[in-house]
Amino acid sequence: MSCRGYNEVKVLNRRVFGFALLLGAVLVAAAVSLWFGKEATMKLVSPAFGYGEPLPARFAYCGEGAQNLSPPLSWSGAPAGTASFALVMSDPDAPSGTFVHWLVYDLPPALEGLPEGASGSPELTEGTNDYGALGYGGPCPPPGPAHRYFFRLYALDRPSLDLPPGATAAEVVRAMDGAVLAEAEWMGTYRR
Fold first, then answer.
1. Cross-strand pairs, 73
2. I need a labelling partner for 87 at 20 to 30 A (CA). Which of 3, 23, 95, 105 fits?
């Protein structure tokens, strides 16, 4: 092999090796990003209905089959430093503007969900919904198109919002200001 041929092979080998190193670094970076991104993303789900699907009637406040039970919820992936959780359920499609159906706060950081019918439990600190009652108040939209019901879970960096039971949505939002580490949502629909 001539010197020229040897040098060309040597340059080609370096280019292939450099490309392989670059490709390997990109793949490792992508894998690390996927792994840690997945772990750092807080998720909220309900086993009772899929995202964007109708809530079963037993969770409604009015209508056929209504039992006004709070739905089961579970969550995972809270970030490091989470000291408590807060949960807000609201309907942005209400005729008078966003209607708050449920406020729960000061949930312990080890908690990974709430069972069906948890509202009213003495272990929960619940706020006043827009029906003017303490705890959960299910959907009761006027007849017509389906409304959307958003469940939003907030991971907070403080163990307590220092609010008594019965706080309003405005008070809970003010108390959470500057304390939110992460947020997750789940949404269901309901129509009469």
1. 114
2. 95
